[in-house]
Amino acid sequence: MGEKQDGLELLEMLRKVCFNFQEHKFGPLAITQVKQKYFGFKQVKGSMLPEYYESFVNVRGMLKQCKVNTGANPGIIDWMVKKKHGTKKSLADLSADEKTAVHDAKDEQQAALIFLYGAEQSHYGAMIEELENAYLGGQNNFLATVIESYNWLLYWSSEAHNHSI
Fold it and tell me: Is the dihedral of CA 52, 57, 63, 65 positive or negative?
C-alpha cells in the first residue's frame, strides 16, 4: 500500500504542476520538486515488482504528458551519440531526426537506470552489483529500456528463487 500511496502522491503533485500552476507560488519550484521525486522514485520494501513497475510507468507517463523535461545532461547525450553513431560524430553532426532519436534513447536509458536503481536493494542489490562489476570488467550489460530492466529484474528474481530452493 505504501508504494501505491507514494505513486498516488507523486501523480497528484504532477497533476497540480500540469494543470494548476496557481496552487504553487513558484512554478519552477513545483517542477523541481516533481523531478526530485522522479529521480528518487523507489520500490517500497516488501512490495511486488509488477506494482513498482506500474507505478513507475504511470509517473513517467504523467511526466511526459505534462512535458516535464527530466534533463538533457550533456555527458549522457555525448555517450548516446557515440553509442548510436560512433566516436567520430557529435550531436552537431546529426540530422534533426537523428537528434530526436538520440534524445529519446537518452531519456529511455535514464529511465531504465532510475527504475533499476529504485528497485528494492535488499532484493536486487546483488544483481545491480553484478552489472556494475561486469561494466568495470569491460562488459556493458546495462539495459537500455524500462521494460528490459523490468524483465531482467523479473527473470533475475525467479532465477535467484529457483537457486535457493
Answer: negative
CA distance 42 to 59: 12
* Neighbouring residues of 150: CB distance < 8 A, sequence distance ≥ 6: 49, 53, 115
Mean pLDDT for 153-163 is 67
Regarding whether 141 and 130 lie in a shared domain, the answer is yes
Domain boundary among 26, 41, 70: 70
With cut-offs at 50, 70 and 90, classify the pLDDT of residue 67: confident
Q: State pTM to two decimals.
A: 0.79
Q: Contact 110/119 with Cβ under 8 angstroms?
A: no
Q: Which conformational region is residue 119 in: left (phi greater than 0), alpha (psi within -120 to 50 degrees), or beta?
A: beta
Contact assessment for residue 125 and residue 119, using Cβ atoms and an 8 Å cutoff: no
Span 96-113, average pLDDT = 92
